[in-house]
Amino acid sequence: MLLARKTAIVHGGSGAVGAAVARAFAREGAAGHLTGRTVPPLEDVARRIQDEGGVAHVAQLDATDRDAVDRHADAVAAAGNGIDICFNATSNDDMQGSPLLDMALADVLRPVTKAVTTTLTTATAAARHMVRRGSGVLLVMAGGRETIADLGGSHITWSALTGVCRQLAAELSPQGVRVSWLLSPGSPAPGEENRADKAALLAERPAYDDVANAAVFAASSWARTMTATELNLTGGLVPD
């Protein structure tokens, strides 16, 4: 197993991406700590992980509350002899479907502010423990290289998160903490698994499990030389 004996925190662990990543981490041997604002859906994900033979713990947490996130990271580190992986999959409260010309400034900036806040809060809380051991991996859903209309503040948000990740990588990588982000055009809803964007080269958009498998790789020792790195899961929609 790629993540055996690792301790992983998944913020936003009850969302579609967070749940898929949490299950994949557990499948590969990591003890998972799932956080979110609402406990019952987190417990559903944890129960599924446990039914599959994995380890999962649940905590109610507001990822914008720095003190609360710090306390949670301290507790996880104390219980598991450190933190190996931190994945931020919290929602950004974005509003899509309208051109920027028609949007109120507050609606454009809301997801930017929330995403940068939660990413910095969760990453720094975990990184303080990782630096002490000289190892760890921070993962974020980011990107921002697409040219797609009517995304509201989403595209600006992803671009901002890429900048945050690059700076974190520059500061933390010399201390043994790797930072990577996953670029995905969005995953299909149930029943849409075979539909692809017309501009993509592959016939299918990535499923949530595809994103989760990429996260497992990025968190594992197989990616030990990768930091300040984007994992492009767009199927060619965004070329490298």
From TrEMBL:
<dbReference type="InterPro" id="IPR036291">
    <property type="entry name" value="NAD(P)-bd_dom_sf"/>
</dbReference>
<dbReference type="InterPro" id="IPR002347">
    <property type="entry name" value="SDR_fam"/>
</dbReference>
<protein>
    <submittedName>
        <fullName>SDR family oxidoreductase</fullName>
    </submittedName>
</protein>
<keyword id="KW-0560">Oxidoreductase</keyword>
<dbReference type="Pfam" id="PF13561">
    <property type="entry name" value="adh_short_C2"/>
</dbReference>
<comment type="similarity">
    <text>Belongs to the short-chain dehydrogenases/reductases (SDR) family.</text>
</comment>
